[in-house]
Amino acid sequence: CVYEAYLASTMGKVILTAVPPDWSPWRHVVAALASGVSVFVIVIAALLSHCPSFDVEFRATTQLCFFLIVIAILFVPSEGRLASVVNHVGAVLCGAIAGCAWIVYICSDGDFIDVCSKTYRYVPPTVPLFLMGLVIFACREADRQWCIRHEREAEQLRRGYSGSVLDAQASVPEDRDRILREIQARGQTKEVEHAIDVLLSVGMSTPALRLAHSKGIDVSAAGQWSLSTVFLTQMSFMYLGISQFTSRGGVCSAGLRWVPYVRCAEGIVWGCLFSSIKHDQRGFAVSAGMVVAVVPCLFLWAAFALIHANIERDACPWECFPDAVMAFTMGPLALALAWLGVDGCLRVPVVGPAIVRTFLLPHIGCPRRRSPESESHEAEDGADIASADSDVSTSDHSDTDNHRD
Length: 405
Known about the structure:
Helix content: 55-70%
Distance between the termini: 22 Å
Transmembrane segments: 29-48, 60-77, 89-108, 284-304, 324-342
Number of strands: 3
Strand content: under 5%
Keywords: Membrane, Transmembrane, Transmembrane helix
Region (Disordered): 368-405
Radius of gyration: 25 Å
Strand order of the largest sheet: 2-1-3
């Protein structure tokens, strides 16, 4: 591990932990999907025959459930038993509300949440909205399983490492002495320890992440990205286009009918950027997308809903105004941040490190926990030195992708 870090620091290469592929998380994804879809089908089958009337209290309860679902997605961590309960309950709740929305459409050709669009081609927008919520909770199950695995790997890497390469052990003592002499002769001790620190914090060590880490930026979330957050970011761009497709005559007024197409185009571009960038940049792209694309979009939608509910005038002609604002502000900013990545943002004069520090949030995704040795070393010289295990092998790559393959 020390020699790989030495090569990485001197030759600007990438180190990844070599782990076997693991498909077990998808069993949990299928279980969450099955529970939500089953409830969706059961609700439709149970209510289809007598078309119940959904009163104002039921609609208000549904809207409250929607906000609770959003809060759960945004603020409940992807780890622990609570996350598993929230994911399955959320999937079931989304399936039930989607089923009720479909019944309302079949019985009255309306939608009990989207009151602006009057007629629909196939289903009202509420149905795909809550079905997408079901998928997000299922994706959170995959995130939860990946977090468990990543923490296990991190514990293996930390075990037995004191924070100094001089304490490293090897099966052949002569090799250890030769490597340490070469490192000390070149004056690379600090650089090697820094490369190992990034590897332990992130699960990989790349030039961009080492540069960010050297500037005091917490890069622990850069190595892993959340599947649910990727899907949520993509849908924040695409949802208005889905509503446009399901509604007869469109959802936007005459002056704003271009908005769904621009938002869908931005979503497609963001998805292409995410799939094409290197793995060490994906955590930053997802975190920035969440901060820039998802949260402001939800805030603007909520503001419009409150305004629509509390004014006497019809606000429906302005239904697409929040997305029009996003199309020219936060949407392009999310695309620019995904395109620049960590290294590109760091090259921005003066404010580059602040940009990365602002948008690379440690609680999005599955950051690795730092050991006490790491925290004490950071207090001494500004670097997070964690612990490593020589039993976990590392592989040197000039350019590689996600080790979840």
